[in-house]
Amino acid sequence: MGTYPKEMQESIERVEATRPARLAAKPGRLTLAEQETLLKGFHPDYRPEGKRKLRVGASWGDPVPHELADLLEAYPLLDPSAVDVTKPDQDVDVLVIGGGGAGTVAAIWAHLSGVPAERILIATKLRHGDSNSIMAQGGIQAADKPHDSPAIHYLDVLGGGHFTNDPTLVRALVEDAPEIIRWHEDLGVMYDKAPDGTMSTIHGGGTSRKRMHSAKDYTGLEILRVLRDEARSRGIPVLEFSPAVELLTDNQGQVVGAVLWNLETGEYTVVRAKATVLATGGWGRLHIQGFPTTNHYGATADGLVLAYRAGAKLRDLDAVQYHPTGAAYPDQLVGLLITEKVRGMDAQPLNRRGELFVHPLEPRDVESAAFIRECASPEKGGRGLGVTTPTGMVGVWLDTPMVDMIHGKGTFQRALSSIHRMYVRFDIDPTKEPILVYPTLHYQNGGVVIDEHGWTGIAGLYAAGEVEGGVHGKNRLMGNSLLDYNVFGRRAGIAAAGWAKNAAPGSPTLSHVERYVGELKSAGVPPTRKAPLLLPEYRGERALARMVDLL
Amino acid sequence: MNEVTVFIMGKGYRVPAGLTIMKAMEYAGYRLTRGCGCRGGYCGACATVYRLKGDYRLYADLACQTPVQDGMYIAQLPFTPAERPPYALQDLAPEGQTLLALFPELARCVACNTCTKACPQKLEVMDAVQAALRGDIRQVAELTFDCVSCGLCTMRCPAEISHHHVWQLARRLNGAYLTPRAKHVQERVQEIAARKFAVELDAFMSMDRDVLVAAYKAREIEA
Predict the structure, then answer these.
(1) Would you tell me which residues 152-171 of chain A have a C-beta closer than 8 angstroms to some C-beta of chain B?
(2) What pLDDT does A488 receive?
(3) What is the dotted CATH code of the domain comprising B3-76?
């Protein structure tokens, strides 16, 4: 091989030199106090200049990243006076906004709860399935092994979240988990299993038991495509390329549907619904603090914006999850996810000298902070021991050849085939050479406040998946997001179906938006900002500078 | 800056060398809606075909994973129409004839191997078609596990097979019927239904933070 530039190659030689000793030793873990020092010193969440307090809305005074505050403190993209929402184009019982994991699960369970398929609608911004759910690699947690229990899982989730989680939601998460796995088996998800059917499970960062269930390193893809196929079998209608741009409320303040906007034709559609499930995912494409992201193209926090205008409370949005291992080389891969499963399978993070500087499986925020400290220059309090790429990216090594050395030749390619494929495309063989990684923006830890049924506290509005908050507190553990969207997608789908049976929605209006605009004006928010964002701006500067809208 | 010329839908643009096809299109001023999803090689939204200067072949790949080359002629496929017959998994049996009965066009395969050549995941697509014809559901499932449903094989197939739908059904049949269930999962579900962990969870939920933190610190970590 040897496709790395010379300077990087020299550091790889040191990695190889320290490997025999590292293979023989057991890495130590940090104490809670050491973890805290690392977080305070180096986690981006602790930079006060990265956030500001919200000046309007139900979570007034809460600090959130500027990138999100700019969207929450923004005027509607859709001018309320430009549309007539009084005559709905479509009337349904359950409207699901978002066609990723949470939305698909919610729709299936609304159907299982007795809502006819034609009375359900999934509206989604891109295609059905285009989501972070489909990109998840490593796995899904469930305490279903004999030496494990939902109570131990509960402790792990709470500790991982630094005891900031909503205990009721955590309990729902851990108690429903085995049932979710069984449901997936019924639907035909191909989990990694021993020949007798026993689940192959490994550790994730912050787990005290090996409860990470996987489907190679395509776990998210495998689960999502099965769920999508099941939704198709049930004939649940899906409207693609049709993001919701505003919720609708009646004169009682109930949410009664949404205005959708056809991304391709520009047409709007008014959908009245007895119950609405918000499943719009997270915020990765806001590139908070300039970080690259693992997230899909549509992760622009639209759901937070819509729900906030309708009066929903938000929580824990000061906590951003940076995944420790985003690709840092080659340039084409920067920011893409390298699953935690690689560390779960014993690959170690190393500095330029080939030294192990942190246990490979600390909780994600701690692990990320350790990587940042290793790479930061001594003037910034760091150790300055990162590896610099020819384009100026800095990262640490992930010693991937250890996987096959410990677990047998061929393991990496079999168990981590997507990562293997990704690097081989660029002539790097991760079974022979380490790969370079650096933290990347991965997950929205917080979100819309819900109860254990996914209810937001606003009549008719439910939320599930990454858009909601409380389940993970200020830091999510690996494998709990796939679980979250299944548990709360199911609960929200059932609750929405139940509400829809007796709901009496009034005439749809955008009065909540008009009220919110009033608040923005009194808070002195400049009228230039518009939201939701819908899509990030990636067009080249040269092209944008000369762009005029003529047609 | 080292630049190359690419032809997006036939029209030439100068873009930095080393960009992926997707980023090159954006650099040139395209705002993508179709043809862009996860941007990481998992969702199959960005199926793209291209030709290279002086080369007769039509190549197929994912725009988010493929670097541009000088003189590349690029066209993205916004959508792949594909036929998925109605079925419910619980009504089907994991038998040899199931796939062929629902997807009779499988029998039209002429073994040309064009599907395999078109696959951006480098899967043995034609072998999977042959396995489907033989009714070997498990082999189909294993050969196609890494499929991202981009539809490139389907667009190239002279037999007009809707591959990814066949694969999806085969994997579900394999997962649901041809793989033993995890007994420990069933047992745990029953234990939870019998409220076996309720007392312990109730206790955790009402515990003071300090006690909880101590319990967390003291928890045993499986080797």
Answers:
(1) 152, 154-156, 158-159, 163, 167-168, 171
(2) 98
(3) 3.10.20.740
Touching B: A residues 362-421, CB under 8 Å: 417-418, 421
| A3 vs B: CB within 8 A | no
Residue of A nearest to B186 (CA): A182
Cβ-Cβ contacts under 8 Å, A175 against chain B: 192, 197, 201
**Residue A368: left if φ>0, alpha if ψ -120 to 50, beta else—which one?**
alpha
Interface touch B122/A421, C-beta < 8 Å = yes
* A512 catalytically annotated: no
Encode pLDDT of B22-54 as tens digits.
999 999 999 999 999 999 999 999 999 999 999
Bridge partners for A455 per DSSP: A462
DSSP, collapsed to helix, strand or coil, labels residue A254 as coil
Q: Are A136 and A481 in contact (CB under 8 A)?
A: yes
| Contact at CB, A235 and B43, closer than 8 angstroms | no
Q: Is A483 in contact with A490 (CB distance < 8 Å)? A: no
Q: What distance in Å separates the CA atoms of residue B85 and residue B93, rounded to the nearest whole number?
A: 16
What is the complex's ipTM, to 2 decimals? 0.98
Alpha helices by DSSP H, listed for A388-430, are 401-407, 411-415, 417-424
A110 and A496 Cβ atoms separated by less than 8 Å: yes
- What letter represents residue A102's amino acid? A
Residues of chain B contacting residue A419, judged by C-beta atoms under 8 Å apart: none
User: Mean pLDDT in chain B?
Assistant: 96
H or E element, residue A212: strand A212-213
Nearest CA in chain A to B170: A188
Tell me how far apart the alpha carbons of residues A103 and B95 are, in angstroms, rounded to a whole number: 32
Helix (H) or strand (E) holding B192: helix B183-193
Compute, in degrees rounded to 10, the torsion defined by CA atoms A67, A68, A70, A74. Answer: 150
Q: Work out the end-to-end distance of chain A between its first and last CA atoms, rounded to an integer number of angstroms.
A: 52
CB contact under 8 A, A190 and B179: yes
> How many Cβ atoms from other residues are within 10 Å of residue A165's Cβ?
26
- Please tell me which residue of chain B has the smallest CA distance to A228: B168
Any catalytic annotation for residue A323? Answer: yes
Q: How many other C-beta atoms can be found within 10 angstroms of the C-beta atom of residue A379?
A: 7
Of B186, B189, B213, the CB nearest to A163: B213
Q: Is A334 helix (H, G, I), strand (E, B) or coil?
A: coil
| Tens-digit pLDDT profile for residues B86-128 | 999 999 999 989 999 999 999 999 999 999 999 999 999 999 9
Please tell me the CATH code under which domain B89-178 is placed. 1.10.1060.10
Is A543 in CB contact (< 8 Å) with chain B? yes
In this complex, is the C-beta atom of A530 within 8 Å of any C-beta atom belonging to chain B?
no
Pairing of strands A268-278, A461-463: parallel
Q: What is the DSSP letter of A378?
A: G
Model confidence over B120-172: pLDDT tens digits? 999 999 999 999 999 999 999 999 999 999 999 999 999 999 999 999 999 99
- pLDDT on residue B1: 66
Q: For chain A, which residues score pLDDT lower than 70?
A: 1-2
Q: Count of CB contacts below 8 A, A vs B?
A: 218
Structural domain spans, chain B:
3-76, 89-178, 183-218
CA atoms within 13 A on the CB side of B211: 6
The whole-angstrom distance between A182's CA and the closest CA on chain B is 6
Calpha distance B194→B216 (Å, rounded): 25
Task: Yes or no: say if A367 and A225 are a contact pair by the CB < 8 Å rule.
Answer: no
Spot the catalytic one: A211, A213, A323, A476. Answer: A323
Q: Domains in chain A, please, with CATH? A: 6-30+320-441 (3.90.700.10), 76-138+215-319+445-502 (3.50.50.60)
Contacts of B195 (CB under 8 A, 6+ apart): none
Largest CA-CA distance found in chain A, in angstroms, rounded: 72
